[in-house]
Every structure is written in structure tokens, then in C-alpha cells.
Amino acid sequence: MPWVLPRTVHVVHDDTAGAALLDERSGRWYHLSPPGGRLLMAILAGAAPSEAAAEAALPEDPGRSTQAFLALFHDLRAAGLLIRRSDSSSRRGRPGPVATGRPGGGLAARLATGRAGRTRR
């Protein structure tokens, strides 16, 4: 089942800087490193989370980094930044985002722990 962003979540993605997500409900920004941003984009494009995590895994330690990416996926779900689009509910969320360039202020590279960074703006 595909994953989508809720309508209140906006993302800016840049291959070199990562991704930033704004949750309008809370006013929080979530920052992802480039590999975390690629994981998010792959999931939004229809890849299964386990497949996307395996593809994003670091060659130096694929097992450990795959687990970290799966933890990131679960953190994004728990924060309400990713929701399932069920076949019966039409357009509850939005399809995957389009790369729009780098947001002002830059992005923090924070995937080492497998968690999305959170900052108030």
C-alpha cells in the first residue's frame, strides 16, 4: 500500500542537502540527511520501506544502516509525517513531492542515529 504525505506536511528535497519537512499542525521542521531524503523519496515513489532501506544502506555496514533507515521510516510514521493511502479513501494524502531545490537556511545532516532531527522554527 503506498505511503503519502498528509496534506499538512510539506517537503523540500535536494539530493546534496537532504530534505526538510514542515508539519503545519505543529509548526515543526524535520531535517533529513541526503540518504534519509532519498529513503523518503523512494517510499513516496512507491518502494516498500524495507526495499528503500536496503537500497539506502551504507556499503560499509549494510545490516546496521538498513535497521537505522527502517527506524527512521517508523519515526516518520509515528510523527504523522507519512500515512498510508488506502484504496478506499481517495486522496487522503498527497502523492510524493517534486524536488523544489534547497530551502533557505540549509539542512542539518542527521541520519547517524536513524532519527529525524526536530527543530522549531
Tell me about this structure.
The protein is an alpha+beta fold. Helix content is 30%, strand content 24%. The chain is built from 3 helices and 7 strands; from the N terminus they run ββββαααβββ. The protein has helices at residues 34-44, 49-56, 62-78; strands at 3-6, 9-14, 18-23, 28-32, 83-84, 93-94, 117-120. The protein has a 4-stranded antiparallel beta sheet with strand order 2-3-4-7, covered by helices on one side. A 3-stranded antiparallel beta sheet has the order 5-1-6, with no helix packed on it. The chain is globular. The termini are far apart. The model is unreliable at 87-121 (pLDDT under 50).
Brief digest:
With 121 residues, the protein is α+β, with helices and mostly antiparallel strands. It has three helices and seven strands; from the N terminus they run ββββαααβββ.
SSE blueprint:
Elements: E1 3-6, E2 9-14, E3 18-23, E4 28-32, H1 34-44, H2 49-56, H3 62-78, E5 83-84, E6 93-94, E7 117-120
Antiparallel strand pairs: 1-5, 1-6, 2-3, 3-4, 4-7
Helix pairs in contact: 1-2, 2-3
- What proportion of the residues form beta strands (DSSP E)? 15-25%
Radius of gyration equals 13 Å
Sheet with most strands? 4 strands, antiparallel
Coarse morphology: globular
* Structural class designation: alpha+beta
End-to-end gap: 33 Å
Physical arrangement of strands within the biggest beta sheet: 2-3-4-7
Q: What low-confidence regions span 5 or more consecutive residues with pLDDT below 50?
A: 87-121
What percentage of residues falls in helices of 4 or more residues?
Answer: 25-40%
Number of helices: 3
Q: What is the N-to-C succession of helices and strands?
A: EEEEHHHEEE
Report the count of strand segments: 7
Average residue pLDDT: 77
